[in-house]
């Protein structure tokens, strides 16, 4: 144990931390100096806080690699406040899978898990994770082995099936928070059910952590969680400004800390910095792309392996995807967080995440964002991996088009499996869609 | 109670032929002004529906349905069962066949379809969504009780009558009788003079027959028990949601093999190996759904599921198993690799077939089944 602790201090806190700080400074300088290439000229100046975000995330992964703490793997929609208050190191396989996708490192892992008979129809995040676990390797960082896993099916049932497999492979305890689907509003018995499960879960968390939960620490975590989530919402809403200082692609990257590090002071500090930078940009009319003519909304997870290609292609058409339901999902519930009633408010929040609400409620979210952000059209990513996000999009698309007279376009792809995706084909269809929007806009102004 | 099957005692060899089809049952009940609920498989409170005089009919397949009707609402890569059920609801010629649509949330596909029906498609019949808890412990049971009470409230509104607890208890009693008979039928499987296809047809007729008729059939089936074991050839088991089309059994039989037990969600997996049922009817109804055999849909640990299958293997002497899984059925796909590992460690070979629920088993799958059986 002493050697492990020493290793952690030297590798993570001494060498790692210093290296990451220097790296972050260099990166910032590089961003500022960057000579504009033809592609870069389509965009506004880069978001300088990105270097700090990278540092935070890298540090988190580095700490995980050498951690001496108890490790919990958790789903992105899982209630993590108690785990954090008990000082667990948290690892989010979904975020890790997204990183693999964005760095175009996912195909091999996906194929590895298919070699173990995991079907092509299983969510690609899962297969990225299984590929690493079963072959005991990882292209990004050393992943800490879990002592405990927590799954909450408020985003999909997939995560329940997924974590059962992990529990079976590692023979470790699993906490299941079963979150009943919410149609209109949370019903009493649904809330009581989640509360009961949370109370039961705390006992398991404490047993494995070998310590008791401190109420003071929990309220501190909740305080930071709430603040981070509220700041995140403000960050997203800077997109109201024309031109928007941010793209949805930026939000996909900058949501790293809200998923992985909510409840931590450093996340709050980071989002304050990011918000300040974006507010500076809005005051000075600095747009995320140079000529913002069209403002779009993105639905579903990003196509991680095509972020750059799609954003560049759209920027070339003076189009900015300024917001995404996916990143918005992390901000919209901030007002519900209440430190004075931790279990009740946690139950309410985690029951009402976007994917645990009805297909109609998602349509309402579209409408709200369209109105608030003055959106010209929607791209709905029909994501083969993600059934709860995708089943329902056809009706939602039709209703947005008929109720709000907003064009909506369905693009077939996968969040992290690039094998069946043809960018040129998709791009051609995107171009036609943008033309349609431009024509409509032109007609409206001509009238 | 209306009986839907002829009164005469069947000679077992042709009785199966006389089990009325799903459509015949629907017609007969309709002619007698009975209310029918179209039910999505797998776990749902059958006795509770019947206590309101609503007869539940599950749809497992509908080969002649127009699937493009579902394509107007859900992606065409969705599992065939989801697409069939949604198309069935949309197809006009079936719309006067039922008064209610009942959807248990057993997976993301059903959950989303349930929501789409309420939010966008809005069929003329009421749609009831039921959240099946994904845990079978006391916390899951007590949530299930509350959820069933909520559903009872909706049914009271829909039917305009109060729930009669005595009737609910009576219906639950029938389900327990069915469960006991089913246990016996599965245990004596080898001594029953019916082919695998007919056995599957008999067992899955539970998904639409009135319980009294089903009890009658099971009793007849048991009465037909012979003293000698049937010839089985190679002994295998089958796992998955359903074995549609049932022709799959003929294919297995034609390669000198038989199915000695099944872990199908519409058949063997519904058996409840538990006898201490509560006297309180809502709790009993919950137990009857959540204490069925372990599976992913109920969130059971994989090890528990593997244990159950291994016990069955020991008892039946199966030497191999076919996991017959519908394309895009995530819950079923997930468990396979771990189960395969567990079973292989004890010498049982398994094999995965992915299929689309169309009218026929594909040529490629027939060849694959053949070579798997030959390799056993
Ligand atoms: S199915 Fe969707 S919500 Fe679930 S893990 Fe996959 S991408 Fe995430
Ligand atoms: S995904 Fe599987 S469990 Fe769900 S409806 Fe389809 S076949 Fe049934």
Mind explaining what this structure looks like?
The complex is a heterodimer of chains A (447) and B (376). Chain A is of the alpha/beta class and 447 residues long. Chain A has a single domain (70-446), classed as Rossmann fold, CATH 3.40.50.11900. Chain A has helices at 2-33, 50-66, 81-85, 93-102, 106-115, 124-135, 158-170, 188-209, 215-237, 248-254, 256-260, 265-283, 307-315, 325-328, 342-351, 359-373, 387-390, 393-404, 423-446, and strands at residues 71-74, 89-91, 148-152, 174-177, 294-299, 319-324, 377-383, 408-413. In chain A, the strands form 2 sheets. A 4-stranded parallel beta sheet of chain A has the order 2-1-3-4, with helices on both faces. Chain A has a 4-stranded parallel beta sheet with strand order 6-5-7-8, with helices on both faces. In chain A, helix 13 links the parallel strand 5 and strand 6. The longest helix of chain A has 32 residues, at 2-33. The N and C termini of chain A lie far apart (74 Å). Chain B has 376 residues and is of the alpha/beta class. Chain B has 2 domains: 34-163, Rossmann fold (3-Layer(aba) Sandwich), CATH 3.40.50.11890; 233-376, Rossmann fold (3-Layer(aba) Sandwich). Helix content of chain B is 48%, strand content 13%. Chain B is built from 15 helices and 8 strands. In chain B, 52% of the residues are buried. The interface between A and B is large, with 48 and 52 residues. One iron/sulfur cluster (SF4) binds next to helix 7 of chain A.
């Amino acid at each position: 144990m002493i050697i492990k602790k020493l290793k952690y201090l030297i590798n993570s806190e001494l060498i790692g931390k210093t290296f990451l700080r220097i790296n972050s400074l260099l990166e910032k300088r590089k961003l500022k100096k960057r000579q504009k290439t033809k592609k870069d000229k389509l965009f506004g100046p880069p978001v300088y806080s990105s270097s700090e975000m990278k540092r935070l995330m890298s540090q988190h992964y580095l700490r995980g690699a050498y951690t001496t703490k108890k490790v919990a793997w958790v789903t992105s929609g899982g209630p993590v406040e108690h785990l954090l208050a008990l000082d667990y190191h948290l690892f989010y396989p979904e975020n890790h899978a997204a990183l693999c996708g964005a760095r175009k490192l996912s195909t091999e892992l996906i194929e590895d898990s298919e070699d173990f008979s995991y079907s092509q129809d299983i969510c690609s995040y899962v297969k990225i994770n299984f590929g690493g676990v079963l072959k005991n390797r990882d292209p990004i960082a050393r992943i800490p082995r879990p002592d405990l896993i927590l799954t909450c099916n408020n985003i999909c049932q997939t995560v329940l099936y997924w974590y059962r497999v992990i529990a079976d492979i590692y023979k470790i305890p699993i906490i299941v928070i079963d979150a009943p689907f919410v149609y209109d509003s949370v019903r009493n018995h649904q809330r009581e059910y989640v509360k009961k499960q949370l109370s039961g879960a705390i006992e398991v968390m404490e047993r494995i952590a070998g310590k008791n939960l401190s109420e003071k620490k929990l309220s501190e975590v909740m305080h930071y969680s709430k603040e981070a989530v509220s700041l995140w919402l403000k960050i997203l809403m800077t997109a109201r400004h024309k031109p928007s200082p941010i793209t949805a692609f930026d939000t996909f990257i900058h949501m790293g800390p809200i998923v992985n590090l909510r409840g931590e002071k450093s996340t709050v500090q980071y989002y304050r910095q990011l918000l300040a930078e974006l507010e500076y940009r809005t005051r000075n009319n600095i747009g995320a792309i140079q000529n913002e003519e069209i403002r779009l909304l993105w639905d579903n997870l990003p196509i991680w392996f095509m972020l750059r290609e799609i954003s560049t292609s759209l920027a070339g058409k003076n189009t900015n995807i300024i917001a995404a339901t996916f990143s918005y999902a992390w901000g919209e519930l901030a007002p519900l967080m209440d430190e004075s009633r931790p279990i009740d408010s946690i139950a309410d929040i985690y029951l009402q995440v976007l994917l645990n609400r009805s297909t109609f409620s998602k349509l309402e979210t579209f409408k709200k964002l369209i109105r608030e952000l003055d959106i010209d059209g929607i791209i709905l990513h029909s994501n083969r991996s993600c059934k709860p996000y995708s089943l329902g999009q056809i009706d939602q698309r039709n209703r947005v088009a008929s109720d709000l007279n907003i064009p909506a376009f369905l693009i077939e792809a996968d969040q992290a499996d690039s094998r069946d995706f043809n960018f040129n084909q998709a791009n051609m269809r995107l171009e036609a869609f943008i033309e349609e929007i431009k024509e409509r806009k032109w007609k409206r102004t001509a009238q | 109670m209306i009986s839907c099957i002829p009164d005469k005692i069947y000679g077992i060899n042709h009785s199966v032929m006389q089990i009325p089809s799903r459509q015949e049952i629907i017609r007969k009940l309709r002619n007698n002004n009975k209310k029918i609920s179209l039910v999505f498989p797998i776990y749902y409170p059958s006795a509770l529906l019947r206590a309101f005089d609503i007869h539940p009919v599950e749809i497992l397949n509908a080969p002649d349905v127009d699937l493009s009707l579902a394509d107007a609402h859900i992606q065409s890569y969705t599992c065939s069962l989801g697409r069939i059920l949604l198309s069935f609801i949309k197809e006009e010629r079936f719309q006067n066949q039922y008064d209610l649509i009942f959807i248990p949330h057993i997976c993301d596909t059903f959950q989303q379809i349930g929501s789409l029906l309420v939010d966008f498609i809005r069929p003329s019949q009421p749609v009831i969504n039921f959240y099946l808890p994904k845990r079978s412990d006391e916390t899951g049971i007590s949530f299930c009780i509350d959820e069933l009470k909520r559903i009872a409230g909706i049914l009271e509104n829909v039917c305009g009558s109060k729930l009669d607890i005595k009737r609910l208890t009576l219906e639950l009693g029938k389900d327990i009788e069915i469960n006991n008979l089913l246990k016996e039928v599965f245990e004596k499987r080898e001594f029953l003079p019916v082919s695998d296809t007919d056995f599957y047809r008999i067992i899955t007729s539970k998904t639409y027959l009135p319980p009294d008729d089903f009890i009658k059939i099971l009793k007849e089936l048991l009465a037909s028990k012979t003293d000698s074991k049937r010839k089985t050839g190679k002994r295998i088991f089958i796992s998955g949601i359903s074995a549609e089309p049932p022709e799959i059994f003929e294919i297995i039989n034609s390669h000198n093999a038989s199915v000695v037990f099944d872990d199908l969600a519409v058949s063997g997996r519904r058996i409840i190996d538990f006898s201490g049922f509560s006297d309180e009817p809502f709790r009993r109804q919950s137990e009857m759904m959540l204490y069925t055999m372990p599976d992913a849909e109920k969130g059971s640990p994989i090890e528990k599921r593997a244990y159950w299958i291994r016990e069955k293997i020991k008892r039946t002497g199966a030497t191999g198993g076919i996991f017959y899984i519908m394309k895009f059925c995530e819950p079923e796909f997930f468990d396979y690799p771990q189960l395969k590992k567990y079973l292989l460690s004890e010498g049982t070979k398994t094999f995965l077939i992915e299929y689309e629920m169309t009218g026929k088993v594909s040529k490629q799958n027939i060849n694959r089944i053949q070579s798997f059986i030959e390799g056993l």
